[in-house]
Design goal:
six-stranded mixed beta sheet, TAT_signal, binds MU-OXO-diiron, Neuraminidase, 8 helices, nine-stranded antiparallel beta sheet, binds calcium ion, Phosphatase
Length: 577
């Protein structure tokens, strides 16, 4: 009833119908261009995309499977912000064997492995708006950069230099090569980019007979990994030779997109897990607070609170804000209350007697620490989003077939459905509007479902209708006006319990009235993930990951290419208004 009984003034476009077409659908009056596709040349000298590109070619091109991204406008010499010139930082989460290699199978040669590693990581690229409103990347521009699996990263915070992160290649435990499976993103008010290492475990492997530890297993490390086949070619991915290498991955990484000579920092104080994204807000006491989801069935939602405070006039100080602070994990109680439990060595039973050795150990094994203190197992926490002007926080819980099936994942609280195939969005408000409070109140903003094929809770909440239904909410970002943009990574069969839901899509929610309208439908097979805006909010950059067919059809060899689209209004107006 919520959706029909109240008006929303936040959205000025009409809900669009679902679609199964191999194209991008938008509301009337909107248009889009392709900004950049996998393989487009970014660095000087890089060639145009071809399926036969070499590893070295890929090292200078946009990586594959675009995901989280953020845009940073350039400051002119006179101190003003240039509305038409910006730097885009964007993640490439992984690659698809069948498209990246001409032989179409997992990496066979050392060259294959190098190409795959170069297809990962972050692309930093200058972009420019032309007079007609379209945006173009500036190939070879001074701030362009590829931070791939061979780039150098620095570990910072309590884990840096500890025995857990020392390897044969790096006895200091501070210098890491590469970042992998960069999923969602975040930004800081001091202009840095946060990139989030998610399913890093899949790149590791080991010969038969290798004994893996409990800590390895908790993070999904296995002898075969995801079948990438990198470990026979590079020792760092071989768990038998380098059992500590995976401890150097699974972190939030901070990058200064405006300084191409800077070394990105892995922020160990924020905990090691399969990071989806990082949603930062500045608390009313000035401390930086980062909310984070661990995207796996039955894993947790975390909060980091910095030790020091943000100073708008001291960027150098802010650049160290994520080095020290306190990590917490969420416990949701039935009835709408919740608490944050501190994950610090020596607190809440995280002691030597209980198997925790040090602060570094607690952070490296954050999952084990969170389980020990009794955190609430969630339905795959994906993106978190902080409202721009209120302390409300939202998080997508994408789906969880194990809910109510596995022992430690009971039905209840914010995870109300067994074998949850549709997902939901939880939100919370910190006690006293203070993000550092140990208590919060929560409710469910939306329960995705199918009112056409399902009944009861599986039909979805009142704000989910036959017209706007969706499954598996994943990407979640507030724009500066408080519109909640919801992106899906779900079942696009359009059949059975998903009949009528079409391809993956992006919706827009009013966080107060609960209204949700479908804004965009993606091409076949894709998920929609990653969104950022120009400062004037007249362009939205949106990621189309793993399209299934030949989309976007910008070359002749029929290879689908993950791409970023730049969405505009034909009348030049604000996106969504
Ligand atoms: Fe990379 Fe959880 O999505
Ligand atoms: Ca995701
Ligand atoms: Ca997902
Ligand atoms: Ca994905």
């Amino acid at each position: 009833a919520m959706a029909v009984s109240q008006a929303t003034t936040l959205m000025g476009f009409e809900n669009i119908p679902t679609s199964t077409a191999d194209e991008v659908s938008l509301p009337a009056g909107y248009t889009y261009d392709i900004l950049m596709s996998w393989g487009d040349p970014v660095l000087d000298g890089a060639p145009k995309f071809s399926r036969s590109n070499s590893a070295e070619d890929q090292a200078g091109q946009f990586g594959d499977n675009t995901d989280g991204m953020e845009l940073y406008h350039v400051t002119r010499a006179d101190g003003s912000i240039d509305p038409n010139h910006a730097v885009l930082a964007v993640n490439s989460e992984y690659y698809n064997d069948e498209f990246i290699f001409e032989h179409g199978e997992a990496a066979k040669t050392a060259e294959d492995v190098r190409k795959g590693i170069y297809a990962h990581g972050i692309t930093v690229v200058e972009v420019e708006r032309k007079r007609n409103g379209t945006w173009q990347i500036k190939k070879g521009a001074p701030m362009n950069r590829r931070l791939h699996g061979y780039a150098e990263f620095e570990l910072t915070g309590p884990v840096a230099g500890s025995d857990y992160v020392k390897t044969n290649a790096d006895a200091t435990g501070r210098k890491v090569l590469g970042t992998f499976n960069n999923c969602g993103a975040g930004r800081t008010p001091w202009g840095t980019y946060l990139t989030c290492e998610e399913n890093f475990n899949g790149y590791f492997g080991a010969p038969e007979g290798t004994a893996l530890t409990e800590a390895h297993k908790r993070y999904g490390l296995s002898k075969n990994g995801f079948g990438y086949n990198w470990w026979p070619h590079e020792d760092r991915f071989n768990l038998a030779k380098e059992p500590n290498e995976p401890n150097r991955h699974g972190w939030i990484v901070e990058i200064d997109p405006m300084d191409p000579t800077s070394t990105p920092k892995k922020r160990t104080a924020l905990g090691r897990f399969k990071h989806e994204n990082a949603a930062m807000t500045i608390n009313k006491d000035g401390r930086a607070v980062v909310y984070m989801g661990d995207d796996e069935r039955g894993e947790f939602i975390y909060k980091f609170v910095s030790r020091d405070t943000y100073d708008a006039d001291n960027r150098e100080r802010n650049m160290r804000l994520l080095e020290q602070g306190t990590l917490y994990v969420a416990k949701f109680h039935d009835g709408g209350m919740g608490e944050w439990i501190e994950l610090s060595y020596g607190r809440n039973g995280l002691t030597r007697e209980n198997g925790f050795e040090s602060e570094a150990d607690v952070l490296v094994r954050a999952r084990a620490a969170a389980t020990f203190v009794g955190a609430t197992t969630m339905d795959r926490p994906e993106w978190v989003a902080c409202h721009p002007s209120s302390p409300m926080v939202f998080c997508t819980l994408t789906n969880n077939k194990n809910r109510g099936v596995k022992d430690n994942q009971p039905v209840g609280g914010p995870n109300p459905r067994a074998e949850n195939h549709f997902g939901q969005i939880v939100r919370w408000m910190p006690e006293n509007r203070d993000h550092s409070s140990d208590r919060f109140g929560w409710d469910l903003y939306a329960v995705a479902g199918n009112p056409e094929t399902q009944t009861g809770l599986y039909a979805g909440s009142d704000n989910v209708t036959a017209e706007n239904m969706f499954n598996s909410p994943d990407g979640l970002v507030f724009d500066q006006f408080g519109r909640l943009w919801i992106q899906t990574d779900g079942n696009y069969s359009n059949e059975g319990i998903f009949a009528g839901q079409g391809n993956n899509q992006m919706l827009c929610g009013d966080p107060v009235t609960g209204h949700i309208r479908r804004f965009m439908v993606g091409p076949q097979g894709c998920e929609i993930t990653g969104i950022t805006f120009s400062d004037d909010h007249r362009t939205a950059f949106v990621g189309i990951q793993h399209p299934g067919n030949a989309w976007p059809n910008t070359d002749k060899d029929g290879v689908p290419r993950s791409s970023i689209v730049a969405i505009r209004r034909e009348d030049g107006g604000i996106i969504g208004a």
